[in-house]
Amino acid sequence: MDFHFFIASGLTLDAPSFNQAYLGVSYLEWLTNSLLVSLIVVGFILFWARKSTLRMELIPGRVQNLFEAIVEALYDMLEGIVGRHMISRVFSLLATLFLFILVSNWFSLIPGVGSIGWGHESDHGFEVAVPLLRPTTADLNTTLAMAAVFMVLWIYWTIREAGVWGTLVHIFGPKGGLKGAMGFFFAFIFFFVGIIEVISILFRPVSLSLRLFGNVYAGETLLTSMINLGHDLGLPNMVAYMMSVIVPLPFYFLELLVGVLQALVFTLLCAVYIQLSTALNEGESH
Amino acid sequence: MDVITQIFANFGVTWPKFGAQVILFLTVYWILNKKAFGPVIKMLEERRTRIQEGQQNAEKIKKQLAEAELRYQDVLRKANDDATKLLDEARASCEVHSQKQTQQAIKDAENIILKAQETITQERNKMVAEVKKEMVGLVVNTTAKVVGKVITPEDQKRLSEETTKELVS
Lengths: 286, 169
Known about the structure:
By secondary structure, chain A is mainly α.
């Protein structure tokens, strides 16, 4: 399979491994193009964080100031959702999620990501089958991994805060303090509501991961379609080339915005889930 | 369950790929928690505390300034009252002293005039006595030369008495 540079290429649903077919090794099934991007993104975030916090001063420099401004803004926003008693415990995870998703989303907009790689000639010209770099949030493995890590820690924090019994009572227990026949009836209803709640909790990692994956994947597909629009319409090469530069520009700005929004949505939903489960006593006391 | 497995397979979700992403994410979470967010939050808390302390100090200083201003006004008013009182007293005292001094000066002047008059009188008497003595001597000498004889002490005494009598008259 030939290695080619290409202006745009559609993504496949799965992130292919650099396995024997491309690299000549069979033991690197986990090494995908999206994992490579994850490593680059993690490297960038760690480098930036280290540079910002290496020599911290009370009056910050430019690099420290930017990092602190982002952390402070996130801290204040998330503190308002999860509450003062939880923020110190959950902030690091939520901030890591936000930064990782944001940088990954924006990294995927760099020209070359998804369009440089191995491919083959076809009837429509050269097609990149395995890009060297794939937007990591357009890989379900990545989004599912983030959602799974969050859910495990969410269960740990919920049980630590409310206890096993407290959590079960919160999910299945009757609310409203009714007694007698009505109380029994409502206890029965609330038990079934609890079952629905458990199902919704089980679906949270799926909904979180699929939402992010779907938005980024759709964004990539949209940009590819816009870049190839002139070519797909059968316009002359010069016009198609001009269109491939001009037409996607507004969509790049849209994707910049979507990148922030999706990072915020993922983080805020996680914060809300934490708030719902850890503010049990506070909520019930009211 | 097969459906879910099939869906995951379609999306390329496999345990090795999923596991690698989980490990990577947990690693970055752990490192950021230890090395980045912890120190930054600590720094932000420290800064927040300092700002709060600064604001509290500013409030305290403002309060102290207001109190000092009140105290200053009080002291100023009191000093003003005291000064006015002192000035009045000084003015009154000055008046009395001035009168005393004037009277003393008048008295002194009178004494000086009196003494001067006494001195003038004494000087005058002394001068008159000297003039008398000179005149007697002159008369006696002149008489001796005119008469051409030696003047006896009795003559001298008589001439002196006569001259004195003449001068007095």
